Amino acid sequence: MAEETARITVRLPLEYLQKLEQIQKKNNEKNLSEVIRRALDDYIQKQLPPENITMVTLALPKSLALKLEAMISEGMDAVSIEEAIRNAIRDYLEKKLKEIATVKSQ
């Protein structure tokens, strides 16, 4: 069953259009509508996450992202950069919480 859609008209600065076209070419999208739909989907997910989730945007140096991708492809215990970062933050917080608990118990 096809998803119901609606048509809208949007005016964008030419600079935005050029950047969207770059993204379209980079990702081999069939048209700009696909790029815009994907961008809107990402925006909606970030603005309206489930109640038990807090969304965080993180900018990584490209060299670090490439190292993470290499580690993942070599069998690191993660399937994506996002998962690797979540795991690293979770492990770090667990370690710090144990340290705090140890200091408080002394």
Question: Would you kindly provide a brief summary of this structure?
Answer:
The protein has 106 residues and is mostly helical. 62% of the residues lie in helices and 0% in strands.
Give me some keywords for this one.
single chain, 106 residues, mainly alpha, 2 domains, 4 helices
Task: Give a description of the structure.
The chain is mainly alpha-helical and 106 residues long. It has four helices and no strands. It has two domains: 12-55; 58-106. Helices cover 62% and strands 0% of the residues. The relative contact order is 0.05. The model has no long low-confidence stretch (mean pLDDT 92).
Topology:
Layout: H1 14-26, H2 32-47, H3 62-73, H4 81-105
Q: What general outline do the C-alpha atoms trace?
A: elongated
Compute the average pLDDT: 92
User: How many strands appear in the DSSP assignment?
Assistant: 0
Biggest sheet descriptor: none
Compute the number of helices. Answer: 4
Class of secondary structure makeup: mainly alpha
Rounded to the nearest angstrom, the radius of gyration is 20 Å
Taken in chain order, the helices and strands follow as: HHHH
What proportion of the residues form beta strands (DSSP E)? under 5%
